[in-house]
């Protein structure tokens, strides 16, 4: 994950996962190391707009070197509100879509790939919606990126997709050659293999990837699936009131 923070005492773009704001690894050191390794693809998950703005000039410089060796740089960010995030006018919890796309579109034209997602509240029992998919499609159309479908991956939470797979199928149908990556978040309990197996029935194998943690014991995974649903339901419909 790329953030704006401190390496020792210097404020630069760093590699860290929120809420940490300090690191012993700067973005520049990380990306240069990846560039020297001829075997790896790189996915950069931008958590802050400031970090993205600082990193893009260096990415622009390195994209040709990655492509020369058959590798890809994925530019990832949550650019729209998703399940559990209700105030669509508040961009404080996700990166502004217009600003991020302005930063990225020339890199996509050069050969970088986009990994786009929706900011969500975990745990949640709220599925993705067709309206959320249409907003994402509108962003791609605005920046004339729908023809770059083979360079676009949509990152979506596995449990939310399981609640209603139709919006994701709709998105894949509208953005040809695009793919989806189903994930479980850091701190999110592992899923059951039953859930993942059912998702595989509904989603095209050649357009779907999985970055999920599954329980080694099926009954525990099922228990987690049920618990996450009801706990998410409680948090969403009965939120704590601020005093």
From TrEMBL:
Residues 10-214 form the Menorin-like domain. The chain crosses the membrane at residues 219-238. This is Menorin-like domain-containing protein. It comes from Aplanochytrium stocchinoi. Keywords: Membrane, Transmembrane, Transmembrane helix. Belongs to the menorin family. Pfam families: Menorin_N (PF10223). GO terms for cellular component: extracellular space. The keyword Ribonucleoprotein does not apply. InterPro entries: Menorin_dom.
